[in-house]
Amino acid sequence: MRGDCATGGQGVSPLLSVLTGVTFDVAGPGEELCGSLANERIVCDRRAGGGYGCPSPMPECTRLGFGKADRITPRLFLTIALQTVDLLAENEETLFSENQIHLVHDIHPVVKLDFARAKEYDGFQSVSDEAERVHMVQKVLSRVANEGRLTESKGGPRVSADILAPLKTAVKTMGELREALFKTYSGLEPSGDYKSFSWKGICRPMLDISQGQVTAKSTGTPVCSRCESGPVHSLPVWNGLMDATMFPQCTKWRDFVPADHRVPPNEWTVAAPGGGEFSPHALWPVRRTAGGTWADEASSMGPLVEEEAKKQGVKCSPFPWQSTWRPENPSESWPSSGTSEEAVSKAIKSDLDERAAFWRVVNLNDLLKSYRLSSEVVTQLEKDALKLVADAQTIDSCEHGRSWYIGSYPQVYVVLESSDHGKSNLRLATGPVCLTADSEKEARDRHKKFWDQVRVDAGCAN
Fold first, then answer.
1. What angle do CA 187, 188, 191 make, to 5 degrees?
2. What's the CA dihedral at 247, 252, 258, 264 to 10 degrees?
3. DSSP secondary structure string, 208-245?
4. Cis-peptide into 248, omega within 30 deg
5. pLDDT category, 16, cuts 50, 70, 90?
6. Element (H, E) at 74
7. I need a labelling partner for 136 at 20 to 30 A (CA). Which of 30, 48, 127, 225 fits?
8. pTM (2 decimals)?
9. Are residues 298 and 411 in the same domain?
10. Per-residue DSSP letters for 366-379?
11. In a shared domain, residues 149 and 181
12. Closest C-alpha to 215, from 329, 326, 372, 359
């Protein structure tokens, strides 16, 4: 694809994209920090669904989790490894799971280890032998290196092998392991400092609405190329809809994904076999592979919302299809009022399939792994949630309908909606199942609690 798309022999765009992933790194001495990192939620768990078989993250912390194509640099990996070993040297606890490793919400990478809730983790183990404790730490850190694709770093296998040597060498004490790790780290960072450097590479641009357009917001401070202000034409972030759309039907799916959100659709051109080219305004194969994806996504949403209902101690009930999505600029063929639910659901599925084909539909939780949202955007999404619920209550006056609320990430999808006049907005879509409280008051309270948390996660709570 043209427009800075990193495919074939072209260079990789300096902007973060679904093609290159995020590089978890730390800034070296004298490096200028990206202004977008000056917020409360700097690092986030970028795994699909987060960690499994473990309790929720510790307060004011998140887990170290990598998304598809994400990488960790040797310097950051050793920073985390050294801090982890330092903490283990202070006690006799056992580190048996990488999910026990937490990162504080701070401008600097600061490690905390969850020992207090160790028994709540899958695979719980507790050993007293020092050599066995050390061996388990080595195994856990090796898994972190593997998940962070450390061996695929630009430094090459030889450098990575040297970095991993302390984890492959038999040692008997935490002190010996720390000494080996520190020696390796000092080869990368002569100062030996592994506590005062700041995050780098994981910045998230803030999406905002400016002059009727969705844009990457200017922070007023120096930022990296990814976070520069400008219009947003797509939301190309890893998510279930993207996987369903392009796999396994299209082996060349990367060619059809824009390198970043700024590339306008008129530059989305891909060479076609035998000559010619694919483009959104002509033949766009993604339209074919995207067909039916929203129906599948809505179906898979059910179990996730049910699981969330159990966590919140509430119920889960059917929600009218007519109230799952209301486009601001519906097409002329959009069903009129009074149309059957079956016809409306068919129209909604078709509409969102079409938008998904242009990477404009994404779950809110997935979106927040790559972007922050302005207060205006979150407020708009929250208003959409309230409007959809209010609309549903007029369609279905069942008893539980009065206690519906959209109050969990599995329920919330963000749609980048644009018009022919150059205007755009971020809107909310949901599915045919909804959290259901015992009373209207409880529904309001739970709604507020969730959206307050969204503001924190989106970086606009203040």
1. 85
2. -110
3. EEETTEEEEPP-SS---GGG--EE--------HHHHHH
4. yes
5. very low
6. helix 74-89
7. 48
8. 0.87
9. yes
10. HHTTT-EE-HHHHH
11. yes
12. 372
CA distance 236 to 16: 10
Measured N-to-C along each axis, helices 156-168 and 74-89 cross at an angle, to the nearest 10 degrees, of 10
The count of structural domains within the chain is 2
Structure tokens at 102: 């937490």
d(CA 290, CA 156): 37
Query: Does some domain include residue 430?
Result: yes
Beta bridge partner(s), residue 418:
424
Helix, strand or coil, per DSSP, at residue 102: strand
Both tokens of residue 461? 């709570």
Radius of gyration of the chain (CA): 24
| 361-363: strand order across its sheet | 361-363, 413-418, 424-429
Which of the listed residues 150, 184, 203 is the one where a domain comes to its end? 203
The CA distance from 307 to 388, in Å, is 22
Dihedral (Cα; 175, 176, 181, 182), 10-degree rounding: 60
Parallel, antiparallel or unpaired: strands 23-26 and 71-72: parallel
Q: What is the pLDDT of residues 50-101, one digit of tens each?
A: 778 899 999 999 999 998 888 999 999 999 999 999 999 999 999 999 999 9
